[in-house]
Amino acid sequence: MKKLKVGIIGFGTVGTGVFKVLQNYKEITVKKIAVKNLNKKRNIENFDEKLLTNNAFEIANDPEIDVIIEVAGGVNPTFDILKTAINNGKHIVTANKELLAKKGSELFQIAKEKNVVILYEAAVAGGIPIIMPVKTILCANKISKIAAILNGTTNYILTKMHEQNLSYETALKQAQELGYAETDPTGDVEGFDAAYKISILSTISFNKKVSIDKIYREGITKITAQDIKSAAELGYRIKLIAMGQVLENGKIDVRVHPMLVAKKHLLAKVNNATNSIMLTGYPVGDLILTGPGAGSEPTASSVVGDLLVLASELEYSNAPLPQSICHHDEIADQIEIGETFNEYYISINASNNPGAIGIIGTICGKNNINISTIMQKGVKDDNTAEIVVITEKSKESDVQNALKELLQSDSIKNIDNLLRVMN
Amino acid sequence: MKKLKVGIIGFGTVGTGVFKVLQNYKEITVKKIAVKNLNKKRNIENFDEKLLTNNAFEIANDPEIDVIIEVAGGVNPTFDILKTAINNGKHIVTANKELLAKKGSELFQIAKEKNVVILYEAAVAGGIPIIMPVKTILCANKISKIAAILNGTTNYILTKMHEQNLSYETALKQAQELGYAETDPTGDVEGFDAAYKISILSTISFNKKVSIDKIYREGITKITAQDIKSAAELGYRIKLIAMGQVLENGKIDVRVHPMLVAKKHLLAKVNNATNSIMLTGYPVGDLILTGPGAGSEPTASSVVGDLLVLASELEYSNAPLPQSICHHDEIADQIEIGETFNEYYISINASNNPGAIGIIGTICGKNNINISTIMQKGVKDDNTAEIVVITEKSKESDVQNALKELLQSDSIKNIDNLLRVMN
To answer: Which residue among B96, B253, B359, B409 is least crowded, i.e. fewest CB within 10 A of its CB?
Structure first.
């Protein structure tokens, strides 16, 4: 292993975890750590406060530092700091999914010119080994599909809603109290975090640059306790699924939204904050990799893993390789959500009259939608009925048209929810 | 990627699968293929029969061949062939778990002297990426425990016994008819195959040479339909589990035997011929990797993956690295089964008299065994009763002593089965 001098940017939970694990490796010297607040109390034994700086550019410009470990997150000022570091010939190990999703292409381009590497195992699914396996031991595969639970916060909330019949709001509050969700939970519950991750993972899996701007994204804030219950009665769990697939015409379908996942599917059995990735490739078939998707220690496993692989490679060669086996210069031709085909769960609030089910059937039929299950859930105090429909595979734009038509009918009060289904 | 000339040894299902996938890579030339029978009809398009030889040493001694892909299996004559090839400076990619378990140390030693590598992703869990991840991206971890389903044949048989209430014999016969089990199923059903794999996996995970000769091994041939049923009633599935763990005193506990796995455990949900590996490490926590453990295509994924990684590494350096990040020169101090601690399922055939349960309780107590569940399963025609006991964590030698004592009692007719339990 080559002796390396390292600078760490960001010294919160993850940075501290990485620093602690690095103490076990005499070949790795942490030379400097960039923090926001120099005076904050650090919970580490025998820690030399002189390592700290509040100027990250000091690290990016330090000629002695070989590798930057970036665990600060965000795009500003992180992008400028890493760009400076790469231009100075430093290798990067980062856990920053947002930065890679938004500015990865630019950073990878400069890194290529400067002959340095950017490793980012920790940016997707925390401790689960996925980036390096896809780039190395799985590289003989043509990966055609990914379906994954990539956000621990939302999986925790959905699990609690299911297990304890909680509303979204109550489950979110519990998750916040336990530290699983942030005070402003938007990044998690609206699916941004999962979208960053699936953009990175589908890019390396399909060998085409998948643009974050073209990923359809829908969060879990509209899922009700009633949806969870109806789904369970129909044999499903609701999960926030990040998915990507290569269609027969070569176009790419990447999106993040809640789905009804059949109870028997292994992804339906992944609970609490655990992450899981199902990957379908040829010749390998279906793989499912499950583990902790966040947290100080699992993230440190991936960050330090990247760093040690780099140190081993650099001992023998100046052209470190694991990241370069698969390229992704080509731009993915991403389709819009309207063009996708799915099975659907539609929860409809209808007048309690005998015509409602007929109207639903007629309008669905007119729009090329075959219904596979229809279930009326009793009658409410306001004399409306909750009707749940599961469709066969249909085109999203047809379903959207049908919903608009349904809303024009006097018998249909509201479309309470539209969710996609995975069997 | 470096251009490589390859020789393939073994051209059955796996060898053919590998050959087909290699057609996609212009950098890889298959120069020769060693087979047993030159005249066998091969089901491959545009296949040049001149590639075939029935003398594998021709490949091992061919100065133009850079890498040997060995998918023939067995120890003789494969060991001599690979030894010759390594001595001739060739790299090896192999799927041969038996050879590595029995003769791996010797081959690795010669490979080290000759500065060549032996890659063997396909030897453990077929298409699931586990060997390279443990050696690379997970190498910052101290792995303390592995619990895995590593044999597809036995998992298929146990799944069918559970789902269709079949006897072991009937399920085996079905598996043989479908090609999941061989005519002589000993290697699978007696746990040899799983033992080879766990010896390899625990060696690289614990960084100590685990000896196949010291692995306790027990197959599934004694599992009855009644065991499966009792286990299900108690909330368990029976699985053939290959496990390894590092104990607090640094000793290593590696074994293969059927276990009652709690229904909620993700390993209990892995059915049919699928394999799954649960790995516990610090700092990563628990990972579960699930996928196809055998078959032509998944095995080809791992074999060709190893080869492509090697080709990429060799382009820049003559010291290829992924295999060398973790060493295992130290010998593991393996404990015997009698020294292990487990929860147990004991199925007892007792006289139908009121004293039997009392005797079981007394003898267990005397031997330091706490019973957590005891269940009598009705009375049979011969006026005996089937009693099922689940114990708290107990020492195996204590349990074995208790069973001997039980058999000396007039009330106890037989110990029908003793299985260990994983919660």
So the answer is: B409
- d(CA B377, CA A85) in angstroms, rounded, equals 70
Torsion of CA A147, A150, A153, A154, to 10 degrees: -20
- CA–CA gap between residue A261 and residue A263 (Å, rounded): 6
Residue B326 pLDDT greater than 60, yes or no: no
Based on the domain organization, do B85 and B189 belong to the same domain? no
Could you tell me if B162 and B238 are in contact, meaning their C-beta atoms sit under 8 angstroms apart? yes
The range of the structural domain enclosing residue B376 comes to 340-422
Distances (CA, A) of B81 to A322, A420, B12, B29, B172: 31, 55, 18, 20, 34
| B335 inside domain | no
Place of tokens 């799944």: B159
- Residues B135, B284, single domain; the answer is yes
User: Residue A91: which of A323, A300, A327, A302 has the closest Cα?
Assistant: A323
Are residues B110 and B141 part of one domain?
no
Confirm if A62 and A90 have CB atoms less than 8 A apart.
Answer: no
Nearest to A291 among B269, B286, B312 (CB): B286
Partner B contacted by A26 (CB < 8 A) = no
**Are B226 and B245 in the same domain?**
yes
What is the ipTM metric for this complex?
0.95
Q: Are B269 and B148 contained in the same domain?
A: yes
- B286 and A281 in contact by Cβ < 8 A? no
A410 to A355, A415, B4, B422: CA distances (angstroms)? 10, 13, 71, 57
Note whether residue B330 is domain-resident: no
A39 touches B at CB < 8 Å: no
Facing B127 at nearest CB: one of A121, A285, A315: A285
- The CATH number for A266's domain is 3.30.360.10
CATH number for position A98: 3.40.50.720
Give every CB contact of residue B173 below 8 A, 6+ residues apart in sequence. none
Q: What is the pLDDT of residues B271-322, one digit of tens each?
A: 999 999 999 999 999 999 999 999 999 999 999 999 999 998 888 877 665 5
Q: Are A305 and B266 a contacting pair at CB < 8 A?
A: no
pTM for the whole structure: 0.95
Task: Give A-chain residues touching B146 at CB under 8 angstroms.
Answer: none
In a domain, A333, yes or no: no
Q: Is the CB of residue A150 less than 8 Å from the CB of residue A293?
A: yes
Query: Is residue A258's pLDDT more than 90?
Result: yes
